[in-house]
Amino acid sequence: MGRADGTPAGSDLRPNSLFIRDRIESWAEKVLALPTAKRLVVVGCSVGGSCALEVAALAPDRVSALVLIGTKAWRRLDPVYHASALQTLHEKGLEASWCEFWKPLFANAALPRTIEKAKHITMRQPLEGVAQGVTAFHTRPSRDDILSSFPGPVVVVTGSEDVAPGLKTSRKQAEMAQHGRLHVIPECGHYVPMEQPEAINSIIRQVLETA
After folding, report:
1. How far apart, in whole angstroms, are the C-alpha atoms of residue 42 and residue 8?
2. pLDDT tens across 1-30, in order?
3. Domain spanning 15-210: which CATH class is it, in words?
4. What is the rounded average pLDDT for all residues in the chain?
């Protein structure tokens, strides 16, 4: 896992072929069925990070390290906002939802071509698949228990301009983990893998070398 759309890093899989389900537990089960390795370093951005935590909850014996990018382990149910997001999707469409929910999470310094690429990825998805992803995000379980009890390295990454969850929450999460480390990427928003790919690739290589 690596991108905010739930797509595994380094693969050509798309949410419409793998993750059209509205429970993040189902995403994690699918992710665990992909690799053959016995030990995994699991990387996730945004809701992908929530999926990474779910993978660790389902198969703690297989996960040697976690890299959580723009991820909030604790979740407070907000059925009103959830319903409002789905209403926007179904009544205004995917482009309006992109402009309201996802585009504002990029840093001010993000390259226009990066934002356009992200929009292109979004617009290629079936609306119902995106709606199911929204539901998976809003109904995911809180996993701060996994964050605090996980015995391996937990690398928390945030863009300096990320507001979801933001620097304060990311720092608390790194401190909560038994072996937590925090990386703050300058001039970067929520989508670190797209905005600063070299930075996140360097971090992941370091984790792979030591996990």
Report:
1. 10
2. 333 333 333 333 344 445 557 899 999 999
3. alpha beta
4. 90
Backbone Cα Rg of the chain: 16
| Exposure string for 194-206, b = 16+ CB within 10 A, e = fewer | bbbeebbeebbee
Sheet holding 179-185, edge to edge: 40-45, 63-69, 153-159, 179-185
Which residue, 45, 48, 8, 41, is CA-closest to 24? 48
Six token digits for residue 36: 């053959």
Give CA–CA dist 102/106, Å, rounded: 8
Q: Give the residue among 180, 183, 168 at the shortest CA–CA distance from 66.
A: 180
Q: How big is the CA angle at 65 (ends 136 and 19), to the nearest 5 degrees?
A: 25
Among residues 210, 206, 185, which one has the least CA distance to residue 197?
A: 185
Q: How many other C-beta atoms can be found within 10 angstroms of the C-beta atom of residue 37? A: 8
Virtual CA dihedral for 110, 65, 181, 171, nearest 10 degrees?
A: 70
Position 171 scores a pLDDT of 98
- E strand spans, 26-152: 40-45, 63-69
> Could you tell me if 128 and 134 are in contact, meaning their C-beta atoms sit under 8 angstroms apart?
no
